[in-house]
TrEMBL record:
It comes from Ditylenchus destructor. The keyword Transmembrane does not apply. Residues 259-269 have a biased composition (Acidic residues). GO terms for molecular function: endonuclease activity; nucleic acid binding. It comes from the Eukaryota. The lineage of its organism: Eukaryota, Metazoa, Ecdysozoa, Nematoda, Chromadorea. This is DDE superfamily endonuclease domain-containing protein.
Length: 281
């Protein structure tokens, strides 16, 4: 039985700069509906969300489409976001290593576990070397299973994106929005959409983060007393007989369990995917 002082969960998620998703609202029966957008429906950035099982949220790690840092932006979001001036839209081995070093950092005292999916740069040789250097163990969620046992995918991403959608809707309705010479609204500026990301992450409560780890069966008591909290094992879940199967497996001593240690106050913090667009939805 292996013990961990800190258990992290992390996931990349795409943030589209014009998240209309082809939807609009008009009176029922209208014969013609005009969809207003900025024309940037495919423009996106990638955000890595990370939190620990005790509910502590790490700063979102944001890949930005520019390589030259903007001093004003850096100063405004210092302590709110980790800004990566990468000039790209998705993670590779290099930026995954920088994320791990900036967000999680080296081991200090107790063992640490990171739960994330099998996106190719999570399981590459270079990333494994970085993980070893940082003294960080990983539990990789196989492709097709993230909707069952990956906390960000199950519990964080939807409210996070819903908040950004509300921010976008309010921005689109604002009278002082900038327009192009052809009469189309300009895409939101970097300062605007980074504010949306920061606010959306702030809106997730500590209690919701803590609950997500038990919802996905990551930090539940190994004696089975909290199996009912695992969402996919509930009677109306995807695996309604799962709790009984776990009970039988325990009797046969076939289950390897992970037991979190008491929090240490001194510690700070291939499945063939071609890009994180494949796992963003």
């Amino acid at each position: 039985m292996r013990s961990y002082g800190t258990i992290f969960a992390a996931d990349e998620t795409a943030v589209f700069l014009d998240p209309t998703y082809g939807k609009c609202i008009d009176q029922k029966g209208a014969k013609e509906v005009i969809v207003v957008s900025t024309g940037h429906e495919k423009s996106r950035i990638t955000v890595m969300l990370t939190a620990t099982s005790d509910g502590r949220k790490c700063l979102p790690y944001v890949l930005l489409p520019r390589k030259m840092p903007d001093k004003k932006i850096v100063e405004k979001f210092e302590g709110k976001l980790n800004l990566a001036w990468s000039g790209r839209a998705w993670f590779n081995d290099e930026w995954t290593a920088q994320y791990l070093e900036a967000t999680i950092g080296p081991k200090m005292f107790s063992n640490r576990l990171l739960v994330w999916d099998s996106f190719r740069c999570h399981i590459s040789a270079q990333t494994k070397a970085t993980l070893k250097q940082l003294g960080l163990h990983t539990a990789v969620v196989p492709g097709g299973c993230t909707g069952f046992v990956q906390a960000p995918d199950v519990s964080w991403n939807m409210p996070f994106k819903q908040h950004i959608q509300r921010e976008y809707n309010n921005w689109m309705l604002a009278a002082d929005r900038e327009w192009t010479v052809k009469g189309n609204p300009r895409a939101p500026g970097m300062e605007v959409y980074l504010g949306w990301i920061s606010n959306a992450w702030d809106s997730l409560t500590r209690e919701a983060i803590q609950k997500s780890f038990k919802t996905c069966g990551i930090t539940n008591n190994p004696d089975g007393s909290e199996d009912h909290l695992i969402h996919c094992l509930r009677p109306d879940g995807s695996i309604p007989l799962g709790q009984e199967l776990l009970r039988k497996a325990r009797l046969e001593k076939d289950v390897e369990v992970i037991v979190p240690e008491e929090p240490d106050e001194d510690e700070d913090v291939n499945n063939g995917y071609k890009s994180d667009e494949d796992i963003a939805q």
